[in-house]
Amino acid sequence: TERLLDVVETSHKIKFEDKERAAHNICETSQGIPLWICLALKSILQNNGSIGEEFEKNAAALYEKYTESIIPNLDNNLISNKQYDAVLRWSSLYKAISLNQEKIIDFICLKANVDKPILEKLFQVMTKNGLMQNYGYENKTYSICPDVIREYILKERLLFNQKLSNWGEEVIDGLIHNDIPYPNAVVESLSHIENTISGKESVDVLGSFTDSLKKKFETSDIDDHRQLWDLVEKLCASKTKETLEIISAQLDKYPTN
Predict the structure, then answer these.
(1) pLDDT (tens digit per residue) in 133-147
(2) Half-sphere exposure of 58 (CA within 13 A, CB side)
(3) What pLDDT score does 251 carry?
(4) What is the structure's pLDDT at 34?
(5) What is the pLDDT of residue 128?
(6) Which of 1, 117, 118, 225 is least surrounded by Cβ atoms within 10 Å, i.e. has the fewest?
(7) How many other C-beta atoms are found inside a 10 Å radius of the C-beta of residue 198?
(8) What distance separates the 2 farthest-apart alpha carbons in the chain?
(9) Cα(39)–Cα(22) distance, rounded to whole angstroms?
(10) Contact assessment for residue 187 and residue 235, using Cβ atoms and an 8 Å cutoff
(11) Are 181 and 213 in contact (CB under 8 A)?
(12) Following DSSP, what letter does each residue of the chain receive, concatenated?
């Protein structure tokens, strides 16, 4: 990447403030995907060699440019913009989605009001345009990438005015009532988002879900605690104190021999 930046400096007659840092941030944000490398370079050129604070934090500049490029490529006969946005936000909850995970596919189709063949076709369009990658057995696993873009999409839809958006409330309510498939993956995504928000922007994303988890430990049989512990593990990134409280409260309830 640094060699590429050497060429950019020469051809565009600009000077990077910190070429090594710029190269690192481009690699981290693009994850080696050619489209995102090109967009990253375009963003840097517009800032006269500076990578920019906003770019470093959440890749907003990249996502905005991507949005401009993909919307004209959406076939209105395939899916509406409203349905597309629904697919995008519900898919962003999962780091990877396999077409063989019928519960997730059915769930996204229900929330976006689309049929399975349409969803698969949309995933193919998103892959062709660079927002998704597909891999695995028969290329049936899809993921929004690079991951920083997925997290940006998720955060933008999850929060509004420094609190959970209506959709964010719907997601947490779905987790509390066991209405969201593969909750471990979703909790992990939300926990990471909450952990990256700090200072004045801090939002208690998983607070009510954590409280509900504590109650489930109290009301469910010990034999059913395994799934609950899996969820507690995913909470660790953002809810260290609450996680330790749950562990401490449950220690005396387990047999010692």
Answers:
(1) 899 888 899 998 878
(2) 13
(3) 80
(4) 65
(5) 83
(6) 117
(7) 8
(8) 73
(9) 13
(10) yes
(11) no
(12) -HHHHHHHHHHHT---S-HHHHHHHHHHHHTT-HHHHHHHHHHHHHTTT---HHHHHH-HHHHHHHHHHHGGGS-TTT--HHHHHHHHHHHTT-S-EETT-HHHHHHHHHHHT--HHHHHHHHHHHHHTTSEEEESGGG-EEEESSHHHHHHHHHHHHEETTEE-HHHHHHHHHHHTT-SSSHHHHHHHHHHHHHH--GGG---TTHHHHHHHHHHHHHS-GGGHHHHHHHHHHHTTT-HHHHHHHHHHHHTTS---
Contact 150, 58 (CB under 8 A): no
| CA 143-144-145 angle, 5° bins | 105
CA 91 to CA 108: how far, in whole Å? Answer: 7
| Whole-angstrom distance, CA of residue 102 vs CA of residue 80 | 23
Predicted pLDDT of residue 236: 87
Contact between residue 75 and residue 54 where contact means Cβ atoms under 8 Å apart: no
Helix 183-196 to helix 147-158 angle, to the nearest 10 degrees? 80
191-202 per-position pLDDT tens digit: 999 988 766 668
What is the overall mean pLDDT for the chain? 82
d(CA 253, CA 31): 45
Burial of 212 by CB count in 10 Å (0-12 exposed, 13-18 middle, 19+ buried)? middle
Task: Determine the average pLDDT of the residues in 183-193.
Answer: 95
Q: At what angle do helices 225-235 and 240-251 cross, to 10 degrees?
A: 150
Say whether the peptide bond before residue 146 is cis (omega within 30 degrees of 0): yes
What residue type is 100 in one-letter code? Answer: N
* Percent of the chain surpassing pLDDT 90: 40
